[in-house]
Amino acid sequence: MAGMLLIKYSEIGVKGKNRYVFEDMLVRNIKSALKPLDHPCDVRKADGRVYISYEEEDYEEALEALSKVFGIAWICPVTQIRPVGIEELKEQVVQFVRDTYFSKGEPEPFSFKVNCRRAEKSYPLNSMEVNMLAGEAVLEAFPQLTVDVHHPDVMLNIEIRPKDINLYSVSIEGLNGMPVGSSGKAMLLLSGGIDSPVAGYLISKRGVSLDAVYFHAPPYTSERAKQKVVDLAKIISAYTGPVKLHIVNFTEIQMKIYEVCPHDELTIIMRRYMMKIAQELAEKEGCLGLVTGESIGQVASQTMQSMLVTNEVCHLPVYRPLCAFDKLDIVAISEKIGAYETSILPYEDCCTIFVAKHPVTKPKLDRILRSERKLEGVMKELYQKAMETVEVIEI
Ligand code: ATP
Ligand code: MG
Question: What confidence category does residue 12 fall into, taking pLDDT thresholds of 50, 70 and 90?
């Protein structure tokens, strides 16, 4: 048997002339989210809504897939009937209530309200009249139910449109946000930690598609640490769409910094090189900005002074969606999106291996620049080598 879902979308409804672009993007993303289902679905847009016809046995799986699509405000299982007069409409509404709430036996008594909207103004009755008549019919058929117009347990929606009438009462909240692809692309600095996957998820919620870059330092960081990042990229790609993951071999750059620069400045100088490389890759890939999982004050390299010095190497905007988040809030999102279990696997991170016992928390740019000058001769070659040996994994 076939079922139908009515998709209401969030902000994209108000984007004026661009609306079609946004809608098409959403339809495309919905189609690709539903592709793995056992049976093909029909996805079409009509009157500021998207309708999905699906095979009933795929219901749970379809909901699960749609719960990861940005831009969806509500998912409503809907019964669509052809336009009918009020007598038949009353029968259909009663049948809808029976199918929805009484198919598995007698439910706990509940209150309801009928909420009619007429997009088709030529319908012979107005909304108030439909509300009253349909409400009466339901009460007559199910005297154990009550009407509550202020706080009903169930809202029975009747939408009268030119070519059909929608009946629905269940609304499942979607992720909201904007359809991925509608805002351009950014390069996410993806480590194996908790924060950066969450940062990627959040920026993607604003319609941004993602590429990613991971800096690894073999043999100091293992294949398992790299695999963990690949796994995290897979987890976020369920929300963000395909991710092109760049793996940069950072070992020699890191070793050279370790050898030449004061150890308390290591992290900052290393991070400046990461940003430089990420920026170059971003520009190659047509990305409009960088994204990191930094949060103000979380660690020494994330004080405002440190970020000022790190940021100095970037001319692309650096988006830090977590900058004002507490760790607990970040963890909550990480759990919600299914990344947490993977993020906490205890594999070494290239940042922590060479980290000083007492890193500077308030670095001064002139001092950092002076230290970096000592790298000038050798670094060019190492930098180039790192760029030439980038491994790309399409996820
Ligand atoms: P995360 O949980 O994302 O690893 P963190 O709290 O460990 O963050 P840092 O290690 O200071 O913080 O890193 C800050 C940000 O820099 C990360 O969120 C990430 O965006 C980027 N970053 C750090 N290490 C790497 C790496 N090895 N590869 C790619 N990006 C990295
Ligand atoms: Mg980290």
Answer: low
Is 346 exposed, middle or buried, given 0-12, 13-18 or 19+ CB atoms closer than 10 A? exposed
Chain centroid, CA 328 distance in Å? 19
Which of 234, 198, 244, 285 minimizes the C-alpha distance to 394?
244
For ligand 1, the distance from its centroid to the CA atom of residue 194, given in whole angstroms, is 9
Sequence letter at residue 242: P
For ligand 1, atom 1, the nearest C-alpha belongs to: 193
**Residue 191 token pair:** 């480590």
β-strand partners of 178? 206
Determine whether the shortest distance from the Cβ of 237 to ligand 1 is under 6 A.
no
Judge if the beta carbon of residue 303 lies within 6 A of ligand 1.
no
Protein residue with least CA distance to atom 4, ligand 1: 193
> Of 290, 280, 293, 284, whose CA–CA distance to 349 is shortest?
293
Render pLDDT for 149-189 as a digit per residue (tens, 0 to 9): 999 999 999 999 988 999 999 999 999 999 999 889 999 99
What is the set of domains in the chain, with CATH numbers?
2-173 (3.30.2130.30), 185-394 (3.40.50.620)
Ligand 1 atom with minimal separation from the 298 CA: 6
Nearest one of 253, 213, 214 to 381, comparing CA atoms: 253
